[in-house]
Amino acid sequence: MSDSIGGTVERGQVISLTRRSAWRREYEMRAGERDLGWLRWRPGRRSFAQAEGQGIGPIELATRRRRVVVAGAGGAETLATVDRQRGGPVIHAARGHTLRWDKTARGNHWAMRDQDGTVLTVAAVQGLLRSSVQISAERTMPEPTAVLLGLIGGYLALSELQYKTDLAAAIAAAAASSG
Predict the structure, then answer these.
(1) CA angle (134 as vertex; 128, 136 as ends), nearest 5
(2) How does DSSP assign 65-129, residue by residue?
(3) Which residues contact 75 (CB under 8 A, 6 or more apart)?
(4) Residue 179 — pLDDT band, cuts 50, 70, 90?
(5) d(CA 2, CA 115)
(6) Which one in 79, 86, 129, 176 has a CA-CA gap of 20 to 30 Å to 67?
(7) What is the C-alpha separation between 37 and 17, in angstroms, rounded?
(8) What pLDDT score was predicted for residue 50?
(9) pLDDT tens digit sequence for 23-71
């Protein structure tokens, strides 16, 4: 990856979102040794996160009525939306780009695809106390685009992991109270 702002992400490069602490939902975004940004949920806020990325600045991601809105800090400019539709969520990015968020395999694996094929693949892992996301570029693209799409993919994947964790806890609590 280029060390300059506005560089490119090459096909096959991996961007990771790694949880900093077992106690807070804060993730750092890195490509190898290079820091690309962060993604953070405030305690008690499951449908709202803040992030900052190399070349895109601070952004907010919020789920509202089955729609994710990605905007500049303070809700300034909408950078992308994710709409739930038949066949899976659709990402409408700025400049008219439309991507599909597809489940690709068992477990927590997804892909962002456009009309020309896969753009990014996303794999999320839930550990006992920490979770992480590995994002692989499937084609060369400008770094700010990869960072923005990586933050959106990370938000979607980590939200899904949190939903599954909450569901499993609720089922376990219901089973324990009925027995």
Answers:
(1) 165
(2) TTEEEEEEGGG-SEEEEEE--TTS-EEEEGGG-EEEEEEEETTTEEEEEETTEEEEEEEEEE-SS
(3) 60
(4) low
(5) 27
(6) 129
(7) 9
(8) 95
(9) 888 999 999 999 999 999 987 777 899 999 999 999 999 998 889 999 9
